Predict the structure.
Amino acid sequence: MTDAFPKPARNVTVPEFEPKTTMEKPMKIYSKAIILVAALALSACSGAGRFGPGGAGGIGGAGGSVSDPASPAYFQQTIGDRVLFPVDQATLTAEGRDLLTLQARWLMTNGDYSAIIEGHADEQGTRAYNLALGARRSNAVHEYLISQGVSPARLKTVTFGKERPIAICSVESCYSQNRRAVTVIAAGGTS
Amino acid sequence: MKTIQVLGLVLALIGLPSATFAQQSSGPLRIEITDGVIEPLPFAVPDFVAQTPAAQEFAQSISAVIASDLAATGLFREIPKDAHIARPTSFDSPVQYSDWKAINAQALIKGAVSAGADGKLVVKFRVFDVFADAQLGDGLQFGGSTGSWRRMAHKVADAVYSRITGEGGYFDSRVVFVSESGPKNSRLKRLAIMDYDGANVQFLTDSSSIVLAPRFSPTGDRVLYTSYETGFPRIYVLDVGTVKRRALDVQAEAMTFAPRFGPDGRTVVFSLSQGGNTDIYKMDIDGRDAQRLTSTPSIETAPSFSPDGARIVFESDRSGTQQLYVMGANGGEATRISFGKGRYGTPVWSPRGDLVAFTKQANGRFHIGVMRSDGSEERLLTASFLDEGPTWSPNGRVIMFTRETQGASGIPALYSVDISGRNLRRVPIDGGASDPAWSPLLK
């Protein structure tokens, strides 16, 4: 049985404590990506949210026209920007490697772009562990792209753990979409 | 930047009005909370006597918070005021024990409040052991600003709790946590702080970046947490009084998370991910003396110091699944302490040093549990779709944690449970809340 704490009878709160919450803008690293994203709201996954505060660029759409093979939109939607992982695994599947080979080829052809590889986990895990697991997944993609010839200087990795699911139900059909590493194309160098 | 006014709570013994109020340190009025199932001890808190007109607005609220604190432990049961026979109108008038025996109140808490023109509040109280016809301990009084009236009520409740249970209290404490809003795939998160019972929620950051897992310093004046301000997870330290924050000085490009203070208040232990590998490091709060404590290709995270600072409990999947390990404060060989079926994470050493609280996943369910720091006597306290991230009350009797409901509309909330597994309660907070960290008892 679960009971709520009894509410205080009254709340005569004297505001002695008023933290400032104004902060400098975050996400500098994504600012270029946001500009690109603005052109196209299409997403690889229906029902996906917008590019949310705190990052997770893999959720939104990428810029340019899908019909232009040199556009980030083509990369995202025609090639495919993400690979999926089995439960608690960070090893690339055969399909994942095939996709990443195509991603690497696109990156080699379109040398003006850099990429941030986001690693994600499903909600079935504790927060810190999932951050570590997401780091493993993004690194697996990072290493594979480098092995295919992409310069490490053009790639960064980030983990979001279980903080940015793409599918929000609590069953395997959603979890399998959330266990992912997404290659998010950004203009210019990442440094 | 506005500075928070330091609460000047003054504690004083009340002069004894007569020799009959000699201290009674032992007697029948006692709860042994190490026992098994207990019958809650019935107590009465008549409205505190307002000794000045300005005290009127606080007298009733203070006695209500005291009653709420005690009843919420599950160890005490309040006898409602409408059942009271006696209505004390003076703090010093003699107690008519028969009036309280008649309603079976075993403990009586009688108090008074006065408010001066200077905005200062004085709260005093006495505890009576009704069936022994005697006062229990000395009367006490607390002084502070009117704005700190809830703290003074909590201090009275802590004193009553301590006298009757023989253990330290935990009501005059705060909890820092992550306030959550918005849909699950684009959650807005901001750091917030509140009284332990969910009152007085104040925000410490805005929601422009994901923030995770705040942790108090041993003195409760600073908070370590992880933020995505730069786009990457990074550890920050925030001064609770000024709300100023700065990044912990670790190498740029590295992802850092899961920080926790050591008991010295200067050492920070945390996880750093590089090249896909996550290990545990420690460093001085000013960024000096960085030291790598684990060097394995497996995941090592969620470190927590023992209260004496000599050891660190952490989680690792070096065996193939997440398990708990203990190592020395400078790293070195680690001893596995979790051996049950399932996965173990987020270990937190209790303030008493004897127990480790953890999250366990088994058969698709999540549990909060405790075990002795050598791994023996594992006990699961909760079970649900998703329970995680325990934090200890200052006296080591209660654990607060995150419970998230499932599905697209799933939302996290804070719950507390005592270490016997009884008295599961939701902490009343508007909106979603996760990752609680309990402060030490305030001074």
